[in-house]
Amino acid sequence: MAAGEISTPQEYIGHHLHNLQIDLRxxxxxxxxxxxxxxxxLNIDSMFFSIVLGLLFLGLFxxxxxxxxxxxxxxxxxxxxxxxxxxxxxxxxxxxxxSKVIAPLALTIFVWVFLMNLMDLLPIDLLPYIGEHVFGxxxxxxxxxxxxxxxxxxxxxxFILILFYSIKMKGIGGFAKELTLQPFNHPIFIPINLILxxxxxxxxxxxxxxxxxxxxxxxELIFILIAxxxxxxxxxxxxxxxxxxxxxxxxxxxFIFMVLTxxxxxxxxxxx
Length: 272
Prior knowledge:
Organism: Izhakiella australiensis
Keywords: ATP synthesis, Cell membrane, CF(0), Hydrogen ion transport, Ion transport, Membrane, Transmembrane, Transmembrane helix, Transport
Mean pLDDT: 90
Strand content: under 5%
Largest sheet: 3 strands, antiparallel
Shape: globular
GO biological process, one term: proton motive force-driven plasma membrane ATP synthesis
Number of strands: 3
CATH class: Mainly Alpha
Number of domains: 1
Membrane topology: Multi-pass membrane protein
CATH architecture: Up-down Bundle
GO molecular function, one term: proton-transporting ATP synthase activity, rotational mechanism
Strand order of the largest sheet: 2-1-3
Low-confidence stretches: none
Helix content: 55-70%
Radius of gyration: 22 Å
Order of helices and strands: HEEEHHHHHHH
Number of helices: 8
């Protein structure tokens, strides 16, 4: 459905909630008005913006690191140093093991998620309008963290690290004992322990991914509702206050995702 064919607020809202998708079986773009329920469909807009923002983060931090000086820092260097110091202090407070991966991972998660969330502050019609009228794209969503596929994929990566550190620190036998002999340390309770510990283990990536998705999807939806239900000349009355409040939300969600990742990996790294 093109923007010119949208005639009702319901169609406008539905149009903005559709991803730019490609069917891997035919390698053709999917019509937003008829999205097939199939595994072989990729949200290429979410993947594109995630990769671009990740490269932006790497390029910016690398440039600042190469041009860093020991004297009075510039604005970019000061900003990067504040972010790195903030993340490093949180890692030191919450992770008590020894690993060269945790601090860079925490920094990557915080900045990457923050940049993905920050896309929600762009005017809701700006990039979709450019995508439609310049590139002929039938739909476009620009907030990767409002796509459950992206957030659960990131949470799955954290879950793999949880398993890796659990087995590395405890061994396969120790990890198996942790799943089967806690909280009730008796062989007769092994099935119950396995269910309880299994649910606890699996709930970590699910809650991690769904928490970020739910908050960012709700924030994006509010911007869409304001744009779809109010006349253009009155939208700023609600858009400006919500955008100011949303700055706190996008920062807080990036911080929570980072903190929970550190806490989960710290728990997995405990030897007992």
